[in-house]
Write a structure and sequence with these properties.
The complex is a heterodimer. Chain A is mainly β. Chain A has no helices and 11 strands. The chains are: A mainly beta, B mainly beta. Chains A and B meet through β5 of A and β5 and β10 of B.
Amino acid sequence: GQNIDQPTEMTATEGAIVQINCTYQTSGFNGLFWYQQHAGEAPTFLSYNVLDGLEEKGRFSSFLSRSKGYSYLLLKELQMKDSASYLCACMDSNYQLIWGAGTKLIIKP
Amino acid sequence: DARVTQTPRDKVTEMGQEVTMRCQPILGHNTVFWYRQTMMQGLELLAYFRNRAPLDDSGMPKDRFSAEMPDATLATLKIQPSEPRDSAVYFCASVGRVRNIQYFGAGTRLSVL
């Protein structure tokens, strides 16, 4: 079957670093996506990995290991506005996104 | 500023009534997805279209839900009759021909009383 696992909730401190992990099992693989969703808003695209390795984009980085079925999203220099849910999604062989349930990230001052 | 537009933003209706949600994808995008999001289930794919043709609607309750794309600038999702368990946020997302990134509309928050 197809499955995406990520932690339900994480808490971190403003200014710190947090890593959100995601493991996946899908039929076929055409990339791994991370989206950010603030409460009451739509998901917005953060990153896309299709090859192994680390992709850095400002304070956010995303890592992929295809052999391990594993990805993480790394957020540095956390700000209060980073409080949101972070959704991991895997694109399968039909180019459909299989979504994780999301990780709610709580930032404390 | 290209964006996916969904209407209405909020809808409150009574059980048994028909509900129609509309989506205007980003101009030039040829793939449109309909999702439903609840606290319990997360994001569920209901249906999607490519070049206006329905490719997969297996996630949609067939007896009451229908999705259409009458032209390249409009996708609709209809529920008839609506039930309280349909209460959720319904998102539309579109994808262009070159990249696989899905861009989401602001969603329709549906409450069925």
